[in-house]
Amino acid sequence: xxxxxxxxxxxxxxxxxxxxxxxxxxxxxxxxxxxxxxxxxxxxxxxxxxxxxxxxxxxxxxxxxxxxxxxxxxxxxxxxxxxxxxxxxxxxxxxxxxxxxxxxxxxxxxxxxxxxxxxxxxxxxxxxxxxxxxxxxxxxxxxxxxxxxxxxxxxxxxxxxxxxxxxxxxxxxxxxxxxxxxxxxxxxxxxxxxxxxxxxxxxxxxxxxxxxxxxxxx
Length: 218
Description:
This protein is an alpha/beta fold and about 220 residues long. Helices cover about 35% and strands about 20% of the residues. The longest helix has 21 residues, at about 1-20. The radius of gyration is 20 Å and the shape is globular. The protein starts with a helix and ends with a strand.
């Protein structure tokens, strides 16, 4: 293992040295800034249209979609969990108490290992933002979201997204994320699925098989 580590370090060091010798960092940055960016970087759609587009994309991914007002978050979460037959969920540190309905169990799981998360009935989180055009939810290691493993291991994920967290495009999302680049970040577009093996669609390979999204408006 030590030998592999040493070889990897040597290769990366050689690459860094080659890049520095061939071009100074300022020259690389200058070239990058001159790359034409003719793609759409923002949108003039109103918030209602962004929510509608986001919902349409989520439906295409076979995700469950629910809507709630800020004061009815816990009521709708109770309805979703009852419909799914869930009695308890893992939660990250920072989930607001008024999201959590009575009659269900919620356990803070930031320190859970993969075995404990796999045995849970699912996870409830918030998000950093969402992207309407791609139906993508962006999660970071922050309050109400937790470490990456929390949303990747459980078979079920219920995510709360506020309407004002929805942006139109991927470039717009990255513009928002530039202030939190040090945080581990996960992009989720619908329930986990792949068709890599014999072109057969299989759910749950790199994350939860079932995703519900609660959109909070108002």
